[in-house]
Each structure stands twice: as C-alpha cells, then as structure tokens.
Amino acid sequence: MAGPAPAAHENWSSRLAFMFAAIGSAVGLGNIWKFPYEAGEGGGGAFVLIYLAFVFGIGVPVMIAELSLGRRGKMSPPNAVRSVAKQEGRSNLWSIAGWSGVIGAFLVLSFYSVIAGLTLSYMVDSFSGSIDTLDASNSADYFGSITGNFPLLLLWHAIFMGLTIAVVARGIHGGLEKAVTWLMPALFAILILLVSYAMAVGDAASTFKFLFQPDFSKVTLETVIQALGQAFFSLSLALGSIMAYGAYVPKDVSLPKSAFIIAGADTAVAILAGLAIFPIVFHYGLEPGAGPGLVFITLPVAFAQMPGGILVGGAFFLLLAIAALTSAISLLEPIVAWLEEHRGINRVKSAIGGGIAIFILGIGSVLSFNYWADVTFLRGTVLDNLDFLTNNIIMPLGGLLVAVFVGWRMKRISIRDELAPKSEFGFALWLFMLRYVCPLALGLIFMGFAFRGLL
Ligand code: PHE
User: Fold this and answer.
1) What is this structure's pTM?
2) How does pLDDT run across 259-269, given as a tens digit for each residue?
3) Is residue 239 within 6 Å of ligand 1 at its C-beta?
4) Rounded-to-integer distance, Cα 343 and Cα 294, Å
C-alpha cells in the first residue's frame, strides 16, 4: 500500500481555540444527561468520589497520551498512530489504536445524534409552552409519544446531523473554531444562570448532601465499572476525537497542562449540571435516581410547576443541545480527517458523505424507540447493542492500546520531546499510571464486560 497521502490539515489558531474545542468535545450529553442520573443511582457522593479518582488517575494520563499521539502523527487517528509507530520502528498494526477510535466515533455519533435530536424536540416544545402542562401522571406518556413518533424523531435526528455536517464541512478555522467560540461561552452562561436559579428556589441542602456526602453502601463493582466508563466517555477518550484534535495543536502548547484544564472543566460542568438539576428535583419531591428519564421525564414535571418554567425549561434543553453539538462535531472530525487523507476527498464532500452514512446507521437507533422496540438480540435493541459495543468493548480496548503503545512502545526520548515535562516527578507519575494502572483498569472492564456479554 502506498500509504496515506499527507493531507495538510489546519492547526488551531490559538491555544484558547483548542481549549474551547476540546472542552466542547468533552462537555456533552454525558455531563448533563448521563452523569446526574448515574450519580443518582450510584449512591450520590460515593459515585462522585470514585468518578473523580478515575477522571484524574486514569482519564488524564490517557488523554495526555492521545493528544501526544495526535500531535506527533499530525493526521487522522489511524494514520497518526501508523506514522508514530513507523517513526518508533514498531508494527503498522498499532494503527488499530486509531482505527478503533474512528469506528467507535462513527457508531457513537449514530445514536448520540438521536438523543441530541430528542433534546431539540424538547427545547422547541418547552419554549412554545406545549409541555408546560405536564405532571407526574403524564410526563412519561408524553416522552413515549415523542419517542414513539418515528417520523418526528427521524426529522430531529436529520436536523441535528445537518447542523453537525454544516460545522465540520467549513473546516477547523471557518467551522469548528467559529462554532465553539460562540457556543462555549453561551453554554457556560446558561449553566451559571440555571445553577443560580436552582440554588435560589430549590432545595440546596438536600442537593449538597446527596452529591457530596458519600454513602459507600450503595457502591457495587457495577458502580465502579460504570464510573470508569463514564469518565472515559465524558472526557471523549478512545473515540478518536481527542487524538484528532491533538493533531491540530501547535507545538508550543503544553499537552499535560491542557489535559488537566479539559478534565477540570469537564468535571466542573458535570457537577454544576447536578447542582442545576437536583435542587429542583428535591424541591418538587421528585425521584433523584430516575435513570435516563431524569432529564426527559422527571425534570419537565418540575419545569411545568415553576413560575417561568417555560423559559427555564427551554434554556435547560438549549444547554443540552449546545453541549451535544460541540461534542458531535468532534465525533465527525476524525472521520472527515480520515476521508480527506484517504483518497483526497475534499472536506465538504467528506463531511456530507460521512454524515449521511452516520445518519443512515442512526435510523436503527430511531427505530429502537418505536417500531423496533421489541426487536431485541444479544444486549437488547439496536441502540442497546451499539451502546454496549462502544462503551464496553471499543472504548476500553482503544484506551488500552493507546496506554500500552505510548507507555511501553514509544521511546522515552520521543515522549519527552512531545511533552517537554517541567516536573520529573509529574512525568514519572504519569508514566507509571499509563504503564501499569491504566492497562490494568481498562483490561478489567474489558474482560468483565466481554465475559458478561457472553453469558
Ligand atoms: N464527551 C462527550 C459527552 O460527554 C461524548 C463524546 C465522547 C464526544 C467521545 C466525543 C468523543 O457527551
């Protein structure tokens, strides 16, 4: 094989642009939709503590490794890893570490877009006042009527993919950077407003107790594994995004420092999302551990009861939609970068072609809510299977390969060159986590799930 044509990708125009884009990738449905309900089910503060340990002990070291691979390889994940492997005199097969990311991103975006479409639908219905009448008796039925409506869900999925394609097609400077420079400040502003509102009118005391007082009696092995998976997903690891974004980072930017800022901001948003949601949930006497329906079924009941709920609810779903969009563009980017390199297909065509293929695969997830809700195999519906495959197999495997490659297969001198470590202790600690702790933890989830998947 002739090898990929070196495609000249753009670089981020500033460190801030890169930070906004990477934080935009990390902050998504995972923080605002998933984290609060997982914390709710996993014992509140105990889950939060375990989660924090995984974010900084395992997520950050892997993020530094991914960013380094991206920047050293300067191409889309499969070609970046292949190029670094070549420079290091290692096998081409390591490019699997990049392939798993691109394939994972393709699969994840197909269903991520469906859930994101749902948030758009709720946003419009909130602002228009049409869900201002919901109460505990009919909120779940309303959710069912939306998800049961195949054409409606399909339309929102198409609109969301259309938005994602429109941003990515415009390139790094004209598309991604422009979008995140507007959207990230908007996201933070809405979040701060919602937290202030929730704290002022809601039950702050119960929220603090719930989120920060650890009750380890609720913690099971399942909770621990879930927290690790959530940390990985929330930091956008092992799905190509962070590695692809790393390829555009100028050489003078410190990758370790960037990784800490991204992880810190991502975690702060997850906790702030909890501080925006739970005071309201407790104030209205609703159930905090209500699973995936917490945001779509429980919260609308509170919005309907509160004064100004139309605006607060609308703003909340707008927040979710923005967070989802800046994540979705980072899932499409590695795929588009790869298509561009592969046969020199231009960016616009790559974004449209890749986006349409993802849209089509996503129809399986749309159907999982309605016509195919009873069509189950292996782990459940099409959506359940895609979620299982990506979260429990592709992500831990991809993370493991990255950790082993960078930790064990790259020359020390190359890593030093890339990271320019300021502290010897920090460097040694990072390498230790990457070489021993990360592979062990990721290997365990992978094996645990692979076995359970067979049972
Ligand atoms: N981190 C995003 C979230 O929390 C999801 C995501 C995963 C985005 C992997 C890109 C890559 O929702």
Assistant:
1) 0.96
2) 999 999 999 99
3) yes
4) 45
